Amino acid sequence: MKRSEKIRIGVSLLILAVSVTIVIVPLYLVVLNSFKPYSEIAKNISALPKEITLINYQQAWKRLNFSTVFKNTMIIAVFSNIGSIVFAGMMGYWIVRHPCRFTKAWYLIIIAGMSVPFQGIMITFAKMAGFLKLTNHLYGVVISNWVFSMPMSMFLTAGAVKSVPYEIEESARIDGCGPLKTYWTIVFPLIKGTVFTVASLNVITYWNDYLMTQFLLTKKGLRTLQIAMQSLFNEAFFAWDTALGAISLSILPLFIFFIFSQKQVLDGVAAGAVKG
């Protein structure tokens, strides 16, 4: 192996090690200290707990009203993802398979939405949401998520559709399949790796969203996990033991999701890299 190649590999491994450390160390400290009382946290955040306690989780569960906020967040994440996959997938398929000036222009307009940050339009969005009666309804957040996740979801699924040979669809149409049946029975199974990757990215966005849900959901009974956590931090600014328990509870569902779905996510990323 050449010296330059060894240096390149060494630098790559160093960057990877630093990146992993930046992510893992804070997560480790959060989980570690969530099992310790406040006195031990204040004394030494890196020390192992002298006696493991679950009181922080009990307090966080009660003060967050975790069962309610978890249900609200789960409803938003699941239905937002389903709608995003269905609408973005079918639109991406239609644009790719019907190239013309109109579809190309429509594609560029939608993709341009990726360059517009939500913060730049949030005041206009809040007024529009109020006019359309989307506030204080979970379906209002779901519909809004469909709109804002459309550019990236359609961009990725359209790229995956381009890799599917058109001859396969022609054979299906000869057998009498319409556009919808062709997409769901022929094309969709071939791009499911990319679709699953899109769904995983969307889940992270929906689960951790705070800004848009704060605009749309003002009733206490409709709070999502992130809104409830912000409220908890405001009420108990110095209660780090309870706060760390709340953070751990908020991380746990996503952690479980990626434990069971990591194979599909990695397969989707690898498939996209090969097709690209």
Computed over alpha carbons, the radius of gyration is 23 Å
CATH class of the largest domain: Mainly Alpha
For the termini, the CA-CA separation is 29 Å
- CATH architecture level-2 label of the largest domain: Orthogonal Bundle
- The proportion of residues forming helix, as a percent range, comes to over 70%
Q: What does this protein look like?
A:
With 276 residues, the protein is an all-alpha fold. The chain folds into two domains: 3-43; 57-274, MetI-like fold, CATH 1.10.3720. It has 13 helices and no strands. The protein has helices spanning 3-33, 38-43, 55-64, 66-97, 101-112, 118-131, 138-162, 166-174, 179-190, 192-208, 211-216, 225-235, 240-275. Helix 7 (138-162) packs antiparallel against helix 10 (192-208) and helix 10 (192-208) runs antiparallel to helix 13 (240-275). The longest helix has 36 residues, at 240-275. The radius of gyration is 23 Å and the shape is globular.
